[in-house]
């Protein structure tokens, strides 16, 4: 029964992530009255407001075979993907940590990073509000629940909050510095400001020492994403933010498999 209720919550959060992904860029760019809750969800093609049945995550999509029930316009597969991924990751996190604050905060962090990843991938856009929320949640997770850095901060005999702060500074300043050098020679920005803050946020979460590893995985991921995008568009921009988040997920996966330290010893 627990799992059933949790699954519904995860699916709803997945559905809300779609709202964030589609509305945040519109709220930023258009002057029309639009916010996260207004106007109600509608078909992008015929603008028909979705019925309550269609709003049910996963089921609404499947019941209509992924089409709008008014005009038969094909609804993007991404909606279904957002919901399914939120369900799978949510169940895995709560299975691993049990029903606890750590599970809750890990899940919030996952959702924030997921939304940032897709936004940067699709629109090269990392909203400041989400970035700041990510930093804030990361700090709280470390200060009160020792999510990532409790061992390291006690090894150096400093408080988790201070250790997180160092992580932020190292993350933010390292990318800022790379950009400053790039700008000095080319007179234009190479890395977006959102990327500095995002990497600072990842530093807040995992502390300064593993950041180079995340940057390495992140750069490789960015390169793969760039090559994927290159096929579709002529843009020369690289979504570094998406890459960094993929790099972070790779790091988390490896550290939970206890492979990170072996990797560093090698
Ligand atoms: Zn329609």
What does this structure look like?
With 266 residues, the protein is mostly helical. It has two domains: 1-99, no CATH class; 101-266, no CATH class. Helices cover 72% and strands 0% of the residues. It has helices at 2-29, 52-55, 59-63, 77-97, 101-123, 128-145, 150-155, 160-186, 193-206, 211-232, 240-256, 260-265. The chain is globular and about 60 Å long. Bound molecules: zinc ion. Zinc ion binds next to loops.
Question: Which key terms come to mind for this protein?
Answer:
single chain, 266 residues, mainly alpha, 12 helices, 0% strand, globular, binds zinc ion
Nearest-integer average pLDDT: 89
Alpha-carbon distance between the two ends: 46 Å
Which hetero compounds are present in the coordinates?
zinc ion
Radius of gyration, in angstroms, nearest whole number:
20 Å
Total number of domains: 2
- Biggest pleated-sheet summary: none
Structural class estimated from helices and strands:
mainly alpha
Helix share bin: over 70%
Number of distinct beta strands: 0
Helix-strand topology string = HHHHHHHHHHHH
Low-pLDDT segments: none
Number of helices: 12
The dominant shape is: globular
Beta-strand percentage range: under 5%
């Amino acid at each position: 029964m627990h799992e059933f209720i949790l699954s519904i919550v995860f699916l709803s959060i997945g559905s809300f992530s779609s709202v964030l992904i589609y509305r945040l860029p519109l709220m930023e760019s258009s002057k029309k009255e639009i916010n996260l809750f207004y106007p109600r969800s509608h078909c992008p093609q015929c603008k028909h407001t979705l019925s309550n049945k269609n709003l049910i995550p996963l089921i609404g999509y499947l019941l209509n075979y992924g089409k709008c029930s008014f005009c038969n316009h094909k609804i993007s597969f991404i909606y279904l993907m957002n919901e399914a991924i939120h369900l799978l990751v949510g169940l895995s996190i709560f299975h691993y940590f049990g029903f606890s604050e750590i599970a809750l905060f890990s899940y919030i962090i996952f959702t924030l990073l997921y939304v940032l990843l897709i936004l940067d991938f699709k629109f090269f856009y990392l909203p400041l509000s989400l970035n700041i929320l990510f930093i804030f949640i990361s700090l709280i997770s470390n200060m009160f629940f020792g999510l990532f850095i409790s061992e390291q901060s006690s090894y150096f005999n400093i408080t988790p909050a201070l250790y997180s702060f160092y992580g932020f500074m190292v993350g933010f300043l390292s990318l800022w510095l790379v950009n400053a050098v790039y700008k000095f020679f080319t007179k234009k920005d190479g890395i977006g400001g959102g990327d500095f803050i995002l990497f600072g946020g990842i530093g807040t979460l995992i502390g300064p020492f593993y950041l180079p590893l995340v940057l390495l995985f992140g750069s490789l991921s960015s390169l793969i994403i760039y090559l994927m995008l290159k096929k579709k568009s002529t843009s020369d921009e690289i979504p570094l933010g998406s890459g960094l988040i993929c790099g972070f997920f790779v790091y988390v996966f490896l550290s939970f498999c206890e492979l990170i330290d072996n990797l560093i010893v090698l």
